[in-house]
Amino acid sequence: MTSTRSATLFALALLAPALLYILVIVAYPLFDTVVLSFTNAALRPTYDFVGWANYQRIFSAGNFTEVILRTLIWTFFSVSIKMIIGMAGAVLLNAAIPGQTLFRVLTMPPWIVPMAIGIFMWGWMYNGQFGMISGLLQNFGIISKPWPILAAGDSAFWATIVTDVWIGVPMVTIYFLAAMQSIPRDLYEAAWTDGAGRFYRFRRITVPMMLPAIITMSLLSLIATFNSFDIIYILTRGGPSGSTTTMIIDTYNTAMGSRKYGEGAARAVVICIFVTLFCLVYFRAVRKLQQGEAK
Amino acid sequence: MTDVAHTTEVAAVDSPATVKPKARVKATKAMIDRYKWYEVVALYAGIALFLFFVLAPFIEGFLVSLKPLSQLFSTPYSFIPKTWSFDSYVNMWTSVPMLGMHIFNSFFISTLVTLIVVMVVVPAAYAFARFSFAGAGLLLGGFLAVNMFSGAVLLIPLFRLMRSLGLLNTYWAMIVPGAAFLIPSSIWLLRTYMMRIPRELDEAAWVDGASRLYTLRRVILPLAMPGIVVVAIMTFIGAYAQQFIFALTFNSKTEFMPLPIGLFAFFGKQEVIWNELMAASFVGILPVMIVIVILQRYLVAGLTAGAIKQ
């Protein structure tokens, strides 16, 4: 029934709406980004092709490599912390103790509330004069004067990471929890019978069995974090003095702030190249993992 | 693995002789889950710390909404309001004159996005779940590759596309691109679900002379309904939680702004009236939060269905 020509035609007809939608709204804009990156497009309706000029300009301007480096560091810390807290959260929520269901539900709000609204709340918490973090630290006598967290480069950099971690943690936790629960219980029981302790079981059973889930979640998280826009835009708009300007913020400012569409497109293309590289590394890792299993 | 467990269970019920091993298994389960008192304390302490991190902004935001502005801008800081005031819940309606409209817009945009995604995704997921045609794997990979690119990266051409389609400053400028980025994962999720529906059912309908479309409508759709519900809820939440960049860039009309953008205008001002901003945020998300709490079990199902490979 499924191998005839009419079956193929039927399948293609079923796929047509989704395919058309993605072609127009994602594939064409992607193609257009690459084309625009070789032009001097701006607000005026016409533009000319300028070859590699945009790429030469952004790489010779000096601060672009700095932006790339900053983005990689920002992403690295954010993703690593998300994975660690997410794993800790999954272990805690997996424990067979009263209140388990309630705790799982309470984990979800940052994920289902509009991101921007959660970020507004963080914006207030980071307030130097009257915010919660500066205020509590002063109340406990840890710092002696107000701490305007978003006003200094270093603290703003870490503050945006903390907020990004906060938004990402529920998803990672629930995903890890699901992967943890799909590990056959017999493995734990056998190890337990042999006298293996809780930590040993975690290290020798949980982590290896969850490796595919950890790698997949790392990639998904990596892509999302690398493209993270809302948090930095709302909290600092890339400031103070560029200390939280990641590639995506930089692209937005070039394209939508200065209306340099051509140059903005070139910066966007560089982002796409990085994301593609991440995916290639991921597929290599998955293949290695599968080969390891085959042996 | 589950089959074996299942057979033992059935056997145990059937003959009294095998009841004992089952009881032993139960005892093992109980003992492996038994914690020493200090482990229980550590677990609860860990959960408290974890949930404090997750919930602190909401608790603080809620308390801020109940503090009068003069107390908010005073030192030393106090976490609990010294005087309780509900003024911000009254005044916010004049500070954000279109608050009701923003709440409606958020809901409206997410609902339309969900409708579009479900209509597009159900046939596509069925095609991927049931038909093997040349290039199917490649096509599925192509769909998933969409997840690599965010709306922010494609903002420039999308802006130009929306402008040339005449959609700028309409609801559609937020709905159309919003839906596109939610289609791929929904296809994946629903395909996984549909693959679990026994193929024999399609074949039986085929033998009975049902057309392919009829089979999809009358056999597959009813069976896939729970999966479709999960996909719809996940899509709605995605559309609801991520309303920002398209609404920020493609629409400048106040009456079309969804809640986050409506409140962002508030946020951008020099003197932010924080207590009213927080009050408006809580009231704004309340309707959707109530719905989500009711549908909570589907949420976990949605997340986990995608996680576990078939």
Which descriptors would you attach to this protein?
heterodimer, A: 295 residues, mainly alpha, MetI-like fold, B: 310 residues, 2 domains, 75% helix, disordered C terminus, transmembrane helix (chain A), Sugar ABC transporter permease (chain A), MetI-like (chain A), MetI-like_sf (chain A)
Quick structural overview:
The complex is a heterodimer of chains A (295) and B (310). Helix content of chain A is 75%, strand content 0%.
Overview of the molecule:
The complex is a heterodimer of chains A (295) and B (310). Chain A is mainly α and 295 residues long. Chain A has a single domain, classed as MetI-like fold. Chain A contains 13 helices and no strands. In chain A, helix 2 crosses helix 13. The relative contact order of chain A is 0.12. The two termini of chain B are 14 Å apart. Chain B has helices at residues 2-14, 19-32, 37-65, 69-72, 87-95, 99-130, 136-145, 155-164, 172-180, 183-195, 199-207, 212-241, 245-250, 259-268, 274-294, 296-307. At the A-B interface, helix 1, helix 3, helix 4, helix 5 and helix 6 of A face helix 2, helix 3, helix 6, helix 7 and helix 8 of B.
What's the topology here?
The complex is a heterodimer of chains A (295) and B (310).
Chain A: H1 5-36, H2 53-60, H3 63-94, H4 100-106, H5 109-112, H6 115-125, H7 132-139, H8 153-181, H9 185-193, H10 198-226, H11 230-235, H12 247-257, H13 261-294
Chain B: H1 2-14, H2 19-32, H3 37-65, H4 69-72, H5 87-95, H6 99-130, H7 136-145, H8 155-164, H9 172-180, H10 183-195, H11 199-207, H12 212-241, H13 245-250, H14 259-268, H15 274-294, H16 296-307
